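Incident log, support desk, overnight shift.

02:14 A customer reports that sequence design results differ from what the structure should imply. Their input is reproduced verbatim below. On-call engineer (initials T.W.) acknowledged and began investigating.
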């Protein structure tokens, strides 16, 4: 073939896009042969010498925790770090109950509620000696860092553990009550609200059929978050918040207003608060003081379980991924938090308190829409 013929063939290849696709194929091959690696993480790993980390889930469980566990395990393994799953939170840590995890050990768990690592309350961990022993256990196993997925209590334990042992820790907020100060979101909240809303929707069907008032108690202890969201999303006539003394006349007036407008059924949402059986007291007072009959339904632990929503899975995946990166970057002690629509890092100290405040605009929204 002459030189001019070769050139014209090259040109026609270029015209037809054949040349471009050959180059593209070459690049694709190169990419496929490349080992998966995170360049940022590789660099940081050299600096901070993290070879393995442990993770545990502690305190109250919440749907979506498994997504965070999966993200931690896969991000760590992808960055060449060993990862140990501690069973039953701090109790398992104190017993050295942990297993090295593999990529496949976290397969097919995204859609499962609860936590595959199990959780627990561990009063022993409140003691300095126990935390020191936990540090020794990690050191003996050559584990360099700890990720704690849990609520305020678990974060307080993690903070003390870091202060006393110097072992790097990262906290990931996991609480259906969304009550962790410093983060606008905690894993499990969206699913818990979704579950409660679905339950109230069902209760509303029977309430309407029988022309009844239902008092539905949701979880939240001192946090108003679940009650407020459920109240707005179900069009409840009244929301009883944990921070306020119940004004039974105000509740009754609100119910009467609806009845006089022709409503045949009503819903009162009650945040469980610290006092067990609050809903039954409200029911008794409505009957005694205002001659209003009602039924009580306490939703309880169904709010903790169930298939995690997309929101919980996604935020948990981001938090788990970022937690490993934080360890590699040596930013300790830290927490992954949700702020202004982003998962970011913040000092762990900012997340040690319980969040009991709420935005009054949600009360206004709830009241304004339930006239
Ligand atoms: P959550 O983490 O969901 O708020 P808890 O408050 O029950 O749940 O805390 C979970 C665990 O964290 C406790 O059982 C205990 O082991 C540990 N913990 C809680 N508070 C502290 C604390 N002040 N000091 C040390 N450890 C704590």
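02:41 Re-run completed on a clean worker. Output:
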């Amino acid at each position: 073939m002459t030189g001019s013929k070769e050139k014209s063939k090259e040109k026609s290849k270029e015209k037809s896009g054949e040349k471009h696709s050959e180059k593209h194929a070459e690049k694709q091959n190169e990419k496929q042969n490349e080992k998966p690696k995170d360049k940022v993480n590789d660099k940081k790993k050299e600096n901070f010498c993290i070879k393995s980390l442990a993770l545990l889930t502690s305190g109250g469980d919440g749907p979506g925790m498994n997504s965070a566990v999966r993200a931690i395990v896969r991000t760590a393994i992808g960055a060449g770090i060993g990862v140990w799953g501690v069973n039953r939170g701090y109790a398992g840590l104190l017993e050295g109950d942990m297993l090295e995890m593999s990529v496949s050990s976290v397969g097919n768990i995204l859609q499962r509620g609860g936590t595959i690592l199990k959780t627990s309350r561990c009063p022993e961990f409140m003691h300095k000696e126990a935390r020191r022993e936990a540090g020794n256990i990690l050191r003996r196993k050559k584990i360099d860092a700890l990720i704690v997925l849990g609520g305020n209590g678990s974060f307080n334990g993690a903070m003390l553990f870091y202060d006393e042992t110097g072992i790097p820790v990262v906290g990931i907020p996991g609480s259906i009550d969304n009550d962790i100060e410093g983060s606008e979101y905690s894993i499990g909240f969206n699913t818990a609200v979704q579950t409660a809303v679905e339950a109230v929707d069902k209760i509303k069907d029977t309430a309407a059929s029988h022309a009844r008032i239902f008092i539905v108690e949701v979880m939240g202890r001192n946090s108003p978050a679940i009650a407020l969201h459920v109240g707005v999303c179900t069009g409840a006539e009244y929301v009883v918040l944990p921070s306020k003394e119940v004004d039974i006349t105000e509740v009754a007036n609100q119910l009467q207003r609806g009845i006089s407008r022709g409503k045949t059924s009503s819903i009162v949402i009650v945040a469980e608060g610290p006092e067990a059986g609050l809903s039954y007291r409200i029911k008794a007072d409505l009957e005694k003081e205002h001659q209003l009959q009602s039924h009580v339904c306490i939703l309880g632990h169904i709010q903790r379980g169930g298939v995690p929503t997309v929101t919980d899975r996604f935020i948990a995946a981001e938090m788990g991924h970022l937690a490993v990166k934080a360890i590699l970057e040596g930013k300790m002690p830290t927490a992954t938090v949700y702020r202004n629509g982003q998962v970011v890092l913040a000092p762990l100290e900012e997340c040690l308190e319980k969040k009991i405040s709420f935005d009054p605009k949600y009360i206004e929204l709830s009241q304004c829409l339930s006239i």
